[in-house]
Amino acid sequence: MARLEYVKPGSSPAVDDLFAEVARMGRPVLHLYRALANQPPALAAFLDMSRYVRSESSLEPGMRELVILATAHELGQAYEVAHHTEAAARAGVAPEKVAAVAPGGSLDALWAAERCSVEFARQLAVSRTCDDAMFARLQSLFTREQIVDLVLTCGWYHLSLEYAAAMHDLGWAAVDELPEIDGEGRPRNFTTFDEARHAAFYSGAVRTIASTDRLAAYLVSLHATGLYSRRFAWAGFRKMDWKSIGDNGRELLSRERAYRAELLRSVEAGDIEFESAWRAYMLLETFDYLSLLTCFGLESTACGPVPTVPGQFEELSVTRVGPWEVALDPFPFAGDRLELDVVFAHVSGDGFESDAELRRRLEGIPRETRRTTYRPAA
Q1: How many of the other CB atoms lie within 10 Å of CB of 158?
Q2: Percent of the chain, pLDDT > 90?
Q3: How high is the mean pLDDT of the chain?
Q4: Cβ distance 316 to 286 under 8 Å?
Q5: Rounded distance, CA 93 to CA 65, Å?
Q6: What is the pTM of this model?
Q7: 368-376: strand order across its sheet
Q8: Where are the alpha helices (DSSP H) in 108-181?
Q9: Which distant-in-sequence residues (6+ apart) come within 8 Å of 226 by Cβ?
Q10: Is 238 helix (H, G, I), strand (E, B) or coil?
Q11: What counts of helices (H) and strands (E) characterise the chain?
Q12: Distance CA 84, CA 280 (A)
């Protein structure tokens, strides 16, 4: 969910003109545009550059989409992956080529210029530059104009992805934008996604966080691994059945261990001292539990151990005392209450026939905001 309000049509003449411009470009008014509409001149400038990158550059449309997807995958942005997987299909990109640029895919399905452009996008995402050998390959396969447009396309989506990461809960924004139904016709939540998508969601989030805060990425990586490792001593959650972990779960465990070793080379030693890191990790587990309670109405009489004061861990009793009020004992936060605004949309009905029906009905429903209050137990 966005941290800034999504601006609605009718908010101002300037906003309506810009949303009409988006429609003339043949695009839906995405949440990204509605968030940027909080500053209409910024959205106008954003649309001008987006129009050039998407419609006027010298890159062939299919290659452009492969480059965008490679950038989005490398930066761990599920939001753009979801949108540009569909855009690639509209541009005529074969499914095997879309699969090729995903993590673990083989680039053998791409022809020489496509492969070079994807490898350039990946190198740029990791190192923020390209080496001499890569630039020589670019010169052998592309004109000067195409090289400029290739660099501009990658750079533009670095900007777009950083904005999306700052404005959305990581990884889940793509599902907010394009909600899906489960096998029973109900809106799908993250607990019903298959292991492959669940593992990709967490790995992508870790790598996006690492671009701005490597210690936070280290902790989220521990959290992701904990989900597949019986929660590392946390009590109060349903545990993962090891027999149910498939290849994607086992790959996540291996991949995240290796990535944390890489992260440790650039994290302050004091931050990863065992007791300090363990306390930070358990605080993250606490907040994760409370967020699940807010979403699903969970309760527990003994979850934890929860860090309360330095050097002390206690079990936390969590009791829902009203639809939007939760009592915590002991209360682990400063002050006498913690208040969080939750934005949601209520769609009535027993179920939906398709993803398209859910999205169509959700589009016209106004969002509501309710404040959830966490307070000490009486």
Answers
A1: 19
A2: 16
A3: 80
A4: yes
A5: 8
A6: 0.54
A7: 300-309, 312-322, 325-329, 368-376, 338-344
A8: 112-127, 132-141, 144-167, 173-177
A9: 232, 234, 281, 285
A10: coil
A11: 15, 5
A12: 36
CATH for 96: 1.20.1290.10
Query: Using CA atoms, how far apart are residues 312 and 289, in angstroms rounded to an integer?
Result: 19
- 195 and 164 both lie in a single domain: no
**Interatomic CA distance for residues 4 and 38, integer angstroms:** 8
Residues forming beta bridges with residue 291, ordered by sequence position? none
Strand-strand pairing, 368-376 and 338-344: antiparallel
Model confidence at 64, pLDDT cuts 50, 70, 90, reads very high
For the chain, the distance separating the N- and C-terminal CA atoms, rounded to the nearest angstrom, is 32
Q: Are residues 290 and 144 in the same domain?
A: no
Q: Is the dihedral of CA 212, 214, 219, 223 positive or negative?
A: positive
Instruction: Give the β-pairing of 300-309 and 312-322.
Output: antiparallel
- In Å, how far are 21, 24, 126, 318 from 235, measured between CA atoms? 52, 53, 37, 13
Beta carbons of 226 and 238 less than 8 angstroms apart: no
Total number of domains in the chain = 2
Domain that holds residue 71: 57-170
278 and 341 assigned to the same domain: yes
- Same-domain pairing of 245 and 354: yes
Beta-bridge partners for 141: none
State the pLDDT at residue 10: 86
The secondary structure of residue 128, as a DSSP letter, is: S
Give the tokens for residue 181.
Answer: 């139904």
Per-residue pLDDT of 175-196, as tens digits, reads 666 788 888 888 887 777 777 7
Look-up of token digits 């939540």: 189
Q: Which ranges in 31-94 belong to alpha helices (H)?
A: 31-36, 40-51, 61-74, 78-90
Confidence grade of residue 240 (pLDDT, cut at 50, 70, 90)? low
Q: Which amino acid is at 51?
A: R
Same domain for 214 and 355, yes or no, is yes
The answer to whether residue 1 scores a pLDDT higher than 50 is no
**Burial (Cβ within 10 Å: 0-12, 13-18, ≥19) of residue 336:** exposed
∠ at Cα 19 (16, 25), nearest 5°?
145
180 belongs to a structural domain: no
* Spatial distance between the Cα atoms of 176 and 73, rounded to a whole number of angstroms: 18
108/206 same-domain check = no
